[in-house]
Amino acid sequence: MAAKMELAPFRPWNDFFPGADRFSKPEFGDLTKWNNRVISNLMYYQTNYFVVALVVFLIVGFLNPFGMFLGGAVVSLVFAGSVWAGENKATIKNFKRKNPTLFVIGVMVTSYFVLSLCGGVMVFIFGITFPLLCESHCHMII
């Protein structure tokens, strides 16, 4: 039996993007508490983050549609190639199983290299990382 998925409610903007005086500084020394705080924040504001990321992605895509399309195509092709190689090459499959983080970093670095050759790297990377930057900056104080 499939689990029922529900969309989290959209939180008010003043709750999502608070002023600096609303919350205390996080404890950087306690990694477990920090991780729980980040995960709770992401779960509570997941709809807000999705909307902000979508708006920024659309704005960047509107400002430079060719660069965004080129960047998306290159990243998709590199990802598809890495999935194919991970399934068909034993060495890559073993590396992927033992070092999943390094494998993802390798895919990202390869995508960056190929995109820099194409010229659309900054547009696409900005379109993806700006929402992440906003998220980390907006809720670093929660």
From TrEMBL:
It comes from the Eukaryota. Keywords: Acetylation, Cell membrane, Cytoplasm, Cytoskeleton, Endoplasmic reticulum, Membrane, Transmembrane, Transmembrane helix. Its main location: membrane. It is a multi-pass membrane protein. The keyword Ribosomal protein does not apply. This is PRA1 family protein. InterPro entries: Prenylated_rab_accept_PRA1 (IPR004895). Belongs to the PRA1 family. The chain crosses the membrane at residues 42-60, 66-86, 102-133.
